[in-house]
Amino acid sequence: MIKKPPKVLPLSFLFSHPAHFIAGGFGSGYSPWAPGTTGTLFGWGSYLLIATQFQTPLQMGLFLLLWFCAGIWACQKTGRDLGVVDHGSIVIDEIVPFWGVLWATQLLTSNAWLWQLAAFVVFRAFDVLKPQPARYFDIRVKNGFGVMCDDLIAALYSVLVIFLAQRLIG
Fold first, then answer.
1. Model confidence over 118-141: pLDDT tens digits?
2. First to last CA, the chain
3. What is the pLDDT of residue 3?
4. How confident is the model at residue 57 (pLDDT cuts 50, 70, 90)?
5. Residue 57 burial by Cβ neighbours in a 10 Å radius (0-12, 13-18, 19+)
6. Among 5, 87, 106, 168, which residue is least crowded by beta carbons within 10 Å?
7. In this predicted structure, what is the pLDDT of residue 16?
């Protein structure tokens, strides 16, 4: 365990265990500026590559479920090793739920970059504001599941807003 971990962790920690690498968003969470936003941007870029690999919604859904479970494990292990449940460098909790938001955006809209940008802005807003029950998971559930769930809830709110906006705007 690192005593009082610094805001920006050394790269040696990122590479010291696979869970740290995953939780750190493959390095994107090590940004000294807004690591959550940087992680979400990494999620956007990586989604553009990932989404082309799946032929059916079931395949993509299983991929997201697998990564959600991997995120729980990685957040739990990394948080325990740092002594901080949700250190700022842990961004897999932004990445995987945002993949889900982008996937839903793709299914609901024309998937134009403006819809993706709207999804990014809405997701970041809900991630920062943490409306209930996201706030409950953030404050009360101090483990890998809680870290992943507050962002999953932000993602669900984001999908709802994109759905409603798409119905209103067309």
1. 999 999 999 999 999 999 999 999
2. 51
3. 65
4. very high
5. exposed
6. 168
7. 96
